Structure formats: C-alpha cells, structure tokens
C-alpha cells in the first residue's frame, strides 16, 4: 500500500502585530473583553499578498524535506482569501517555488480547508497519480474585516503554513479522515458582497465577514467532536492512543469544549490562538509546524486534528507522524521588510469603515 508521509513543514508569520490594546483604539473593546471571550491576545496583519505568504511557507517546507521546487508534482493551496481568482493563486505559488509543470489548484473549505486539501493530496498519492505534493494553507483574513464591528474585528489574523507529502511504503501520514458539510445553515457564517451572484453593473459595497457566534459555537463543537469519533472508530483507536490534538484555532472556548468532550489532557493540546487569532485554513497548518518546533509532536506520534468552517464545512483527521522532527535543510525565504505597525496597516480600512 502507498502512504503519503509528511516529510517537510514550514510556516510564514507576518511581522506586524495587532494587539488587543491596538484594536481598542479603533473599536469599543478592551483586552479583558477579547481575551476572556476568545483567548486571543494578538494577531498578525500581512503587508503582502496571500500568494507571498503561501510561497514563503512552501519554500520552508520544501527545504525541510530536503527537496527542491522541481521535485514537486502538485501545489494545493487551501484559502478563502486568494490573491486572484483567475488565474488561481496556486499557479503563482507554483511559479514562485520553481515547481515547473506541477499541477496547481486552489481549494476553498474555509477553516476546514487545510484538512480537505490534505485529504485530496493524500488520495492522489495513494492512487499513484503523483509522488510529491505541497499542501499549503494561506489566509489574509484581515482584508475582509469590518473594523467597526467588535464581534468580528477582534477574531481574525493572517498567516500561512505548509507541509510536504511524499509517497512512501511506511504507514505514516494521513491514515484516516472524515469530511463533511452542513449546508442547511450556511448563512450563519459568510462573506457578503462578493462573487458572481452580485450584479456586475452595480457597486456591491465593501466585502465583510458576517457570522452568528452562538450558533457557530454549538455546531463547531458538535461537528468536530463527532468527526473525531468517526475517525477514531475507523482507525480502530481510542482516545488514550492520541498523543497530540491540533484543533482549529477559532476560539479558546471552542478548543476547551472539544478537549473536554474528547477527554484529552492539557499537555496534549496545541494552542496558539493567543498569538495569531483565527487565520482560517492556516490555523492547523501553522499549529502543526509550531507543535513540531516546540517538541510537542514527537517521533511516531498519533495526531488528531479537527476543524469547522464556513459552508458549514467540518473535518477531522488522524495523522501518524514519522520518525523525523528536525528539518533536513533550512530555507532563507522571508517576507519583504515593512516598517509599518499592525495599526498602520489597517488604518485605511478603519477609515473606510467609519
């Protein structure tokens, strides 16, 4: 049997930080209000495009795997904030990393996007269609934020994370997964004024993300927990077999509710929402990278991951980590420098929302 082993990982974190105290200067809120309700203390604001975030993360993952761009057969980008719709953003990432001739495709399952893309790329490797893939999740969520609305303005951040999948006869990688969508309530989380359903002859107004927090909370906890149960049953594992839980970083209360429902100890749960906020599809990819960097993920660990996003999509995945937890090579890829703060980067949008 062919498996899709994770052999490389890398992330891209924009340098400009936007703290809760910063946000309190543009919307009626406080650090205490935000942190107690969400667990978020800060988030990053990108000064570059989604494609550039994805490129840097991908280059780090490729180097980590000891590969070059020309070795890649597929670039699969999970994003709901693409730089361009036509041509797809993945094609620009493919060009930037030197993966000449590789297939390139964007996939949008919102916050569940990374796990959806991981399933897709794994299936292609298992079918013998490709040998190596970059699965990258990159988001520029702050581009959609209406800074006059407290409930949504405090939640989102920008960033990217990537992994390399390689065909292997060793039983590592994504070994079980469950994805789905509850489309009956898709309007409780959506971005308005965007897409071809709009009139092309009338100005649509600014795009912004709208959601119903309480309803999302209930559906997120149930959807992710049920999906985890399905995956565990399929993989014939018990909760005691799970070494690390990497949940979507949307809200600390949601993470804690899932942790409690699955009865997993604190030291097994990866949490970084306090630093980055909700980066949608990128949250799990970034958290996975940091879990390896921080020694939370160890050789041969059993990893459970779960996500819930607009659509309403949901996913859970069981990943068997390999023996290596250190990079083969290290890339010097980095974002261009900026001397702007997070507040300065959002100032134009803030003014437009007033």
Automatic annotation (TrEMBL):
Pfam families from the UniProt entry: ACP_syn_III, ACP_syn_III_C
Start and end residues of each Beta-ketoacyl-[acyl-carrier-protein] synthase III C-terminal domain: 232-321
EC number(s) stated in the UniProt entry for this protein: 2.3.1.180
Gene Ontology terms: biological process: fatty acid biosynthetic process
Alphabetical list of InterPro entries matching this protein: ACP_syn_III_C, ACP_syn_III_N, FabH, Thiolase-like
Top-level division of the source organism's lineage: Bacteria
Principal subcellular localisation of the protein: cytoplasm
Sequence ranges assigned to domain Beta-ketoacyl-[acyl-carrier-protein] synthase III N-terminal in this UniProt record: 106-182
Gene Ontology CC: cytoplasm
Any GO molecular function: beta-ketoacyl-acyl-carrier-protein synthase III activity
Catalytic activity: malonyl-[ACP] + acetyl-CoA + H(+) = 3-oxobutanoyl-[ACP] + CO2 + CoA
Alphabetized UniProt keyword annotations: Acyltransferase, Cytoplasm, Fatty acid biosynthesis, Fatty acid metabolism, Lipid biosynthesis, Lipid metabolism, Multifunctional enzyme, Transferase
Residues the record marks as active site: 111, 248, 278
Region entry ACP-binding, spans: 249-253
Domain notes from UniProt: The last Arg residue of the ACP-binding site is essential for the weak association between ACP/AcpP and FabH.
Similarity comment text for this entry: Belongs to the thiolase-like superfamily. FabH family.
Function: Catalyzes the condensation reaction of fatty acid synthesis by the addition to an acyl acceptor of two carbons from malonyl-ACP. Catalyzes the first condensation reaction which initiates fatty acid synthesis and may therefore play a role in governing the total rate of fatty acid production. Possesses both acetoacetyl-ACP synthase and acetyl transacylase activities. Its substrate specificity determines the biosynthesis of branched-chain and/or straight-chain of fatty acids.
Subunit organization: Homodimer.
Protein name: Beta-ketoacyl-[acyl-carrier-protein] synthase III
Species whose genome carries this gene: Pseudoalteromonas aurantia
Lineage of the organism: Bacteria, Pseudomonadati, Pseudomonadota, Gammaproteobacteria, Alteromonadales
Gene behind the chain: fabH
């Amino acid at each position: 049997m062919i498996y899709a082993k994770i052999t490389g990982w890398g992330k891209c974190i924009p340098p400009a930080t936007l703290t809760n105290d910063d946000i309190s200067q543009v919307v009626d809120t406080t650090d205490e209000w935000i942190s107690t309700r969400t667990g978020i203390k800060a988030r990053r604001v990108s000064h570059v495009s989604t494609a550039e975030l994805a490129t840097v993360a991908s280059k780090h993952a490729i180097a980590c795997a000891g590969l070059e761009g020309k070795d890649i057969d597929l670039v699969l980008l999970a994003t709901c904030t693409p730089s361009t719709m036509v041509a797809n953003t993945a094609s620009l990432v493919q060009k930037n990393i030197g993966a000449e001739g590789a297939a390139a495709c964007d996939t949008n399952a919102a916050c569940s996007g990374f796990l959806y893309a991981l399933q897709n790329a794994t299936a292609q490797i298992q079918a013998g269609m490709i040998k190596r893939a970059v699965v990258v999740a990159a988001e520029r969520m702050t581009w959609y934020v209406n800074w006059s609305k407290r409930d949504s303005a405090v939640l989102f951040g920008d960033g990217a994370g990537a992994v390399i999948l390689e065909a292997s006869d060793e039983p590592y990688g994504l070994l079980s997964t469950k994805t789905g969508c509850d489309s009956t309530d898709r309007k409780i989380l959506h971005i308005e004024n965007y897409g071809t359903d709009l009139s092309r002859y009338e100005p649509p107004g600014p795009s912004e993300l709208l959601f119903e927090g309480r309803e999302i909370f209930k559906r997120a906890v149930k959807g992710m927990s049920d999906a985890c149960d399905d995956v565990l049953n399929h993989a014939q594992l018990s909760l005691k077999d799970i070494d690390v839980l990497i949940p979507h970083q949307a809200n600390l209360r949601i993470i804690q509710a899932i942790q409690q429902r699955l009865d997993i100890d604190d030291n097994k749960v990866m949490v970084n929402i306090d630093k980055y906020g909700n980066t949608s599809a990128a949250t799990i990819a970034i958290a996975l990278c940091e879990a390896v960097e921080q020694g939370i993920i160890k050789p041969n660990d059993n990893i459970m991951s779960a996500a819930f996003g607009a659509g309403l999509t949901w996913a859970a995945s069981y990943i068997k980590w390999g023996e290596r937890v250190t990079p083969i090579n290290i890339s010097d890829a980095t974002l261009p420098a900026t001397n702007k703060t997070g507040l300065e980067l959002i100032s134009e949008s803030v003014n437009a929302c007033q």
